[in-house]
Each structure stands twice: as structure tokens, then as C-alpha cells.
Design brief:
The structure is a single chain. The chain has a 6-stranded parallel beta sheet. The protein has a 6-stranded mixed beta sheet with strand order 16-17-21-18-19-20, sandwiched between helices. Strands 3-4-5-6 form a 4-stranded parallel beta sheet, with helices on both faces. With 457 residues, the chain is an alpha/beta fold. Helix content is 34%, strand content 20%. The chain has helices at residues 6-12, 56-61, 74-81, 94-107, 123-134, 152-156, 178-185, 201-204, 207-215, 234-241, 283-298, 303-312, 338-350, 371-383, 398-404, 419-429, 449-453, and strands spanning 4-5, 25-26, 28-30, 40-43, 66-70, 87-91, 113-118, 140-142, 166-170, 190-193, 224-228, 246-248, 256-261, 267-271, 274-278, 321-323, 328-332, 357-362, 389-393, 413-416, 435-439. The protein is globular, with a radius of gyration of 23 Å.
Length: 457
């Protein structure tokens, strides 16, 4: 996040006397009291498990300069900050206030070209690649990490400053109506849907509902709308939104030719006749790159900048990134669905390594009534795979285990819902030269294995 004066923040919130906050400098916004520091705006928000107002005393001890709190807690909060340097701005609803604050801040940059990216998978990679390209030509604001929800997007807005000429923000949804909120905060000129998959189907109910909700990123005033060329929901979304959609992909992104997989080293292709290497494993990374390239072309970005940005891209941890060492680890633990699991399993199956291939697969969450079907699908992908050893983690993975058991020996197939058992088994089995895939929904915290496996040599 950029640094902003407290008076500016108060002005966005329409405080009557914003000048009283002029001596405050804000360089981050957080809803997590544990992450609050001496230059934070702490937004006290009521969540599913906790109410941020309960932690006001904690952030005051951290000498936080500014709190956004509900007027319902004015008496309690007032007594907690009394005698400290911490100031409080009271609003009726802190979430809505944060969102409105973000919306007004974005509107203050009239020259900003806004790009929005959604999809079941690939949002972060597409955003990172496009951001890498656009930074080569002008100041560009990009979603930090995966801040893409109705809270995260509002916080991400403050990556924009008066110098920004482009913004590339993820717009992630997991319930009906959320895209309406996101588009109201951040109304993109160019919108792209990476794909329509099973992620969050448990909350949204069906693939059709997912397509309809994500399709709302193609709002009435959108200038360009893009979807992957082979999407089975391409025509459905186009008809539902009544917006002409442009395709991107191997056959529809111009100037890309001679595509060739480098396995764990990424992809090589020619862009307008010039060689390019992009780091990132799996065909999904290639498709994400082609979507980013197509948007860059729409923005009339020169070839040199597109090539430079592609070459400079580095996958974020947990997003199909490769950690080289005595044991090679594919870190794909940020999230999991049948679609993303299928593509990364294909990549591992085709990869070359000196030792054995091992896949650690955590449960796929938020599948709802599709849970059994989703985990059965993964088992079918694994039946004829060249991956020698499979480690299934989580109670939902029992479905996968049951399907695979007739085809694998006990030495090749392992199931547990206890992390310590999983860790012990991995330490016993994994040897120097092996290739290990770590894949699972975020809730499974598969990344705990990274430092453990990295010690094997």
C-alpha cells in the first residue's frame, strides 16, 4: 500500500473536521489486530468468528494511530483509547465505509486504466504477468497477494496513487451478489474471466450459478470483455450478459507461435518472431500468460515491453511455483479444485526427475454437494498417472483413496487426516532427487511441509 495522510483518509470518510488527523501517516490498512502497527489504519469489523472491536485494546497497545470503528461501540472504544495517541473515526458500518472510501479513492485518479480479473483459478498468475508487463511502461497498481474479496479489493485500492496509470486487480467471489459489490467499488474498463470451474460451488450451488456471478464482471459499461477460447461457458456468459466477448488462448492470442513446454522450467514460445521464456509450470500458466498478452495488446503496449514483462515474471509462492533443491518441490498449495488439480497432475506426470514422483493432495474444500464427485474425479486422473507415490490428506480424500486402493499398493498409497502422521510419512519416504507436488485447499495448510521436505538431502 502507498502512504497516505490521515487527513486524506478522513476526507474520504467525509469526517466533518478532517484536519485533526493531518499529523497521522497511514501506510497499511488491516482488519487483523495482530498485523496492526505504528502506521496502520485498523478497521474493526465483525466477522464469522470474531468482532474486531474486541481487539481495540490490543491495537492501542501497539500504538496504532487510527481506528475505524462502528458508532455502536463509541463508548467502549472511547474509553480504551483515552489517554493514548490513537484516534478513532466512527461510522455506521465499517465494511461499507471501507468500501466507499476505496471507491472514492479510485475515482480520484481520472487517468487510471482499470483492468479486472476473475475466474475459478488463474486470477493471481494472470494478474502478476500483466502487472509485470505494464510496469515496464508506466506506474501500475496490482492486487497485493490475493486480496481479492469484498474486503481485500477495498484494501487493494490503496495500491493506487496519483502516479498510477494502470491498475490490475483480482475480483474473487464465493457467494451470490459479491461481484455486484466488487464492480461498484472498482469498475474495470477491461474485464477478463480466466475460467469457470468448481471453486466455491458449495456456496454458489452450481456451475451455472458460478458462471452467472463471475459474468457480472462484464458490467454494462465495460469496454472489453475476454474469456478463454475453449470455455464451455463462453456463449452462456455472452448471452447472459449481452456483451460481445473476445477470446484468448493458443488459437486466439495474436503474434504467439512455436509454443513448447520446458517442463519444470516453464514455457518457451515466439512473440512476433522473438523468443520468450516464461517461468511457471503447467498448461494453465501458459493460458494465463496468453490472457495477459491479449490485454497488453489491447492497450497498445509495445513488443519490447511485453517480452520484458513476460521474462521478468516470477510465480508467487503457492501458485505453481517450483522450489529447486535436493528435493524438487512444486508448491501449488494456495487453493485446490478438480480443474486446477487435474492440470498440475498432468504437469507432474510429464515431468522428468532423477528420483520418484510424489504427490501430496489435500482435501478440496467448498465443494458442497459436489464433494464426492470432485474427489472421485481426481482419483480417475491418478489411476493411470506416472506418479509413483500418492499421499492423501483430509477426510474428504477418503473418496479418492477408496477409488485408488485397488490400483495401488500400501507403499504407494497413503491416507490420513492427521498432519503429524503425514509429515512423518513424507520424511520416511522422500529421498534426494525426488519430485514432490504439494496441492490442497488453503484450509489444509499443505505449505507446512515445505520447510520440512527442504531439509532432506
Amino acid at each position: 500500500m502507498k502512504s497516505f495522510n490521515g487527513e486524506y483518509i478522513a476526507t474520504l470518510l467525509k469526517v466533518k473536521d478532517p484536519g485533526q488527523y493531518s499529523n497521522i501517516s497511514i501506510s497499511d490498512i488491516t482488519i487483523d489486530s495482530r498485523k496492526a502497527g505504528s502506521s496502520s489504519l485498523f478497521v474493526a469489523m465483525k466477522g464469522k468468528r470474531h468482532d474486531g472491536h474486541e481487539f481495540i485494546s490490543d491495537v492501542v497497545k501497539r500504538r496504532i494511530p487510527l481506528i475505524l470503528a462502528s458508532s455502536k461501540y463509541k463508548k467502549e472504544a472511547g474509553s480504551l483509547v483515552s489517554g493514548s495517541s490513537t484516534k478513532v473515526i466512527y461510522v455506521e458500518d465499517t465494511l461499507k465505509a471501507l468500501q466507499q472510501m476505496a471507491k472514492l479513492h479510485i475515482s480520484n485518479n481520472g487517468r487510471l486504466k482499470k483492468i479486472g480479473i476473475t475466474g475459478s483459478t488463474g486470477k493471481t498468475t494472470t494478474k502478476e504477468i500483466l502487472g509485470s508487463i505494464l510496469r515496464c511502461v508506466a506506474p501500475t497498481a496490482v492486487t497485493p497477494g490475493n486480496f481479492n474479496s469484498e474486503i481485500g479489493l477495498a484494501i487493494s485500492a490503496f495500491e493506487i496513487d496519483r502516479f498510477s496509470r494502470y491498475s490490475v486487480f483480482e475480483m474473487g467471489i464465493d457467494h451470490a451478489g459479491e461481484m455486484d459489490t466488487l464492480v461498484d467499488i472498482y469498475t474495470p474498463h477491461i474485464s477478463l474471466i480466466t475460467n469457470i470451474g468448481y471453486s466455491h460451488v458449495g456456496k454458489l450451488g452450481s456451475m451455472k450459478a458460478i458462471a452467472q456471478e463471475k459474468g457480472k464482471i462484464f458490467h454494462d459499461s465495460v469496454e472489453r470483455a475476454l474469456m478463454e477460447e475453449s470455455s464451455s461457458f463462453y456463449r452462456f456468459v455472452e448471452n447472459d450478459r449481452e456483451v460481445p466477448i473476445l477470446p484468448f488462448g493458443v488459437n486466439s492470442t495474436p503474434l504467439v507461435s512455436d509454443v513448447f513446454s520446458l517442463g519444470l522450467d516453464g514455457w518457451t514460445f515466439r512473440y512476433n518472431g522473438r523468443p520468450v521464456i516464461i517461468r511457471g509450470v503447467g498448461r494453465h500458466t501458459l493460458i494465463d500468460a496468453l490472457g495477459a498478452i491479449k490485454i497488453a495488446q489491447m492497450l497498445d503496449i509495445e513488443d519490447e515491453a511485453i517480452i520484458e514483462g513476460l521474462q521478468a515474471f516470477k510465480p508467487l509462492a503457492g501458485h505453481s511455483s517450483v522450489r529447486q533443491g535436493d528435493v524438487t518441490i512444486i508448491e501449488d498449495w494456495y487453493n485446490s479444485s478438480p480443474d486446477s488439480t487435474s492440470t498440475i497432475l498432468d504437469c507432474v506426470s510429464n515431468a522428468v526427475c532423477r528420483g520418484k514422483k510424489r504427490a501430496v493432495l489435500g482435501s478440496m474444500k467448498e465443494m458442497g454437494s459436489y464433494t464426492h464427485r470432485a474427489h472421485t474425479y481426481v482419483s480417475r486422473q491418478l489411476k493411470n498417472s506416472s506418479i509413483e507415490n500418492i499421499y492423501l490428506f483430509g477426510k474428504e480424500m477418503y473418496t479418492t483413496y477408496k477409488e485408488l486402493k485397488p490400483y495401488r499398493s500400501s507403499n504407494q498409497l497413503f491416507l490420513t487426516d492427521d498432519y503429524q502422521q503425514l509429515q512423518r510419512r513424507m520424511m520416511e519416504d522422500t529421498k534426494r532427487g525426488d519430485l514432490v507436488l504439494l496441492k490442497g485447499s488453503r484450509a489444509m495448510e499443505i505449505e507446512r511441509l515445505v520447510p520440512v521436505i527442504s531439509t532432506i538431502g
